[in-house]
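Below is how a single chain appears once it has passed through the pipeline. First comes the sequence as given, then the structure the pipeline wrote out for it. We keep one example in the README because the format questions we get most often are answered faster by looking than by reading.
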Amino acid sequence: MKKAVILLSGGLDSATTLAIAQEMGFACAALSFRYGQRHVAELDCAAKLAAKAGVIRHEICDIDLRAFGGSALTADIAVPKDRDEAAMGVGIPITYVPARNTIMLSFALAFAEIMEANDIFVGVNAVDYSGYPDCRPEYIAAFETMANLATKAGVEGHRLTIHAPLIKMTKGAIIRRGLSLGVDYALTSSCYDPTPQGQACGHCDSCSLRLKGFAEAGTKDPATYTA
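Resulting structure:
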């Protein structure tokens, strides 16, 4: 089987992406990050998802983005709550973590070379993406070009492909796709500001988009919410 590296945060999108990669016939290795995020509960979900999927290897890397801060996810900045779609659609929100996807994809490049994998999957989305600049199709295309210039594998003719299968899908469509592949969304965590026990707040942008997606998909969100 062909091998692929999956960026697995433990959230809804990355869980669906892992299922899609496996459906495509890839033997998957998963890569997660403990980067100082306040929603570190997602890593427990990533471990459970990786185990259930039977990935060939799962690595959790430690990188401390709190050293830089600048985001509500990595600094003592309040996570925005109860914003409507109009508010979420304007500007780049404070939950954007500077260069996070670039950092994580760079780690994935190194992991892919070690695993002799020519494919990397990432669950970014340009429809319900809350304004993050590193979730756009042009960013993914540019990173793929860079990857093939900057790696031993690329230089030796083993072309690396960055797959973003969810990039043009609505959250509802993502959930329907995942359910058709048997994804257990009860194992996922999307909240930016969960309780210490991992319960979702139900009010941050990520929770709002998740709840909207399940409503669009016509099914109940199995996540546990505080209210």
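The longest strand covers residues 27-34.

See the next section for the split statistics.
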